[in-house]
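In response to reviewer comment 3 from the previous cycle, which asked for concrete evidence that the modeling workflow produces usable outputs, we include below a single protein chain processed end to end. The sequence was submitted unchanged, and the resulting structure tokens are shown without manual editing.
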Amino acid sequence: MQFTAESNSTEDQVWNLIIQNLAPEVAAEVSPATSSFIKTSDGIECHVRKSNGDLLANCYSESDRMGRRRWTIDLIKK
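The workflow returned the following structure tokens.
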């Protein structure tokens, strides 16, 4: 799954886009308290987790060369 966000989007804005792009049954399991954003040398990543800490998805961004960030959501297979 992918979506595009402005390069100056806040973590809250990106978080909302991540949740909107997840299937409803996956989004229902997400816990903001255990999920996290991580700064990397080439952007930002997000680890989306359940309330028990289990990883649901890894999300990462890259420049789309148009001044925006393309986010990819990689779901963890059960």
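Residues 57 and 75 are 4 Å apart (CA to CA). We consider this sufficient to address the reviewer's concern, and the full set will be provided in the supplementary archive.
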